[in-house]
Amino acid sequence: MTDYVRHDLRIEPTRDELSRQRFVSEMRRHILGDLAREMRSAYDKRVEPALIGEKGRKPEDGAEVHRAMRGERSYRFYSALRVNCQKLVWRSVIPTIERNLHGLNRKVAAAAANGNGCGGTLELRPGLDTPPYVANHDVHLMPGCYHTERGNDDAAAGALYDNGTAVFSMGLFGSERADIGASIARFIALKFPQLRPRRILDMGCSIGSNTLPWARAFPEAEVHAVDVAAPLLRYAHARAESLGVKAHFRQMDATACDFDGEPGFDIVWSSMFLHELPPKKVRAVFREARRLLRPGGLMLHMELPPNCRTEPYESFYFDWDSYYNQEPYYKAFRDMRPLDCCVAAGFDESNFVEFIVPSLARNGEQELQAYVSRKGIAVDENTGRLSPTIRWYCFGAWK
Ligand SMILES: C[S@@+](CC[C@H](N)C(=O)[O-])C[C@H]1O[C@@H](n2cnc3c(N)ncnc32)[C@H](O)[C@@H]1O
């Protein structure tokens, strides 16, 4: 059963729309489950032995597996279906959004004008340039990408992201699709009880799904979030107000934030953000995060595990989006070594951290607590995979 939007910005699908949305989620489950298993088995039985026969060795990296898999029928079928299913994710929610857009935009504008008393804020900067890597292509095939506005006070892209990810995630991201933030914020609170953050920043927050868990995990902290896309931020603010969580959303480029005159942050966080940036911008984000942190503060990024942590077949599997899902920087990002990125930004090598965090929604509090005392990290077949026992990877550094 797919987990649909439940807060005040919920829009009601017709029965036909709902069954289409459920169908798309189930089709994704089939592709990522059954078809992915078939593809793996074809690799083990045919493709890898042929490659070893030809080269006299196992493949060295994901790119080599990708070249070998291109001719494999199960892979071509998997990819064709997955691309089409990704397009259907968005198409399955667009009619519902279009029918409800007027009312939705009115609600969002009312929240911007009045809030609902929980004290969150929204600050937009109409003059801010949308970076070309957002403006020039529809990231993960989402029509109009994050930034497109169809009129004043438009929040359609926010609704598209929220409802689309509900279909995309097949119910695996928890009821508010906040599982990444909820699991990792809880993990950090348990692992570092001495860390009492007063200010937290989320970079590339989109609609704030993984921002709000930080406010819940650290109720004493002031939570800020930045993104370049106005329609997402309008929606994020109205969503937070409707959920009764205080957070401050600002339209800002994460590579050049201007929180002038304000003290620094104790935690600078991002989730699923860095892989959408060209490598030069990734490096700029790390430098900016370090600049914004107070001494003793923590920078933390959630992403898929990097290629240096995965076997060639897993690397090939995770890099799929880079080739077929309009995420052109995904592989380049996963090829970067997290430790090197932190050190290049000025963090001390000894302050580097890396964690595997089990999903709170899928595995529960007890499993999460068991991971708090673990030493070292082991990337397994559940890490980053949309599986029923998913685990999240994150890394960063103390300043
Ligand atoms: C995949 S989404 C992030 C998802 C979000 N963090 C979450 O957990 O749901 C990437 C976001 O980064 C934003 N973005 C891209 N470049 C940016 C930049 N330079 N500064 C701030 N936000 C940026 C996009 O507008 C988009 O909302």
What does this molecule look like?
With 399 residues, the chain is α/β, with parallel strands linked by helices. The protein has 15 helices and eight strands. Helices cover 48% and strands 13% of the residues. The longest helix is centred in the first third of the chain and has 41 residues, at 15-55. It has an eight-stranded mixed sheet. The protein has a domain at 170-398: Rossmann fold, CATH 3.40.50.150. It has helices spanning 15-55, 62-69, 73-91, 94-114, 132-135, 156-168, 179-191, 212-217, 230-243, 279-292, 312-318, 320-324, 330-335, 338-344, 360-372, and strands at 121-123, 199-203, 222-227, 248-251, 265-271, 293-303, 352-358, 391-398. Residues 131, 134, 146, 180, 204-206, 209-210, 226-229, 232, 253-255, 271-273, 276-277 line the site of S-adenosylmethionine.
Overview in brief:
The protein has 399 residues and is an alpha/beta fold. It contains 15 helices and eight strands.
Order of helices and strands: HHHHEHHHEHEHEEHEHHHHEHE
Low-confidence regions:
none
> Within the CATH hierarchy, at the fold level, what is the topology of the domain at 170-398?
Rossmann fold
CATH H-level superfamily title of the domain at 170-398: Vaccinia Virus protein VP39
Distance between the termini: 43 Å
- Per DSSP, the total helix count is 15
Chain-averaged pLDDT: 94
SS-derived structural category? alpha/beta
Kindly state the percentage of residues in helix. 40-55%
Q: Based on the coordinates given, report the CATH architecture of the domain at 170-398.
A: 3-Layer(aba) Sandwich
* Proportion in β-strands: 5-15%
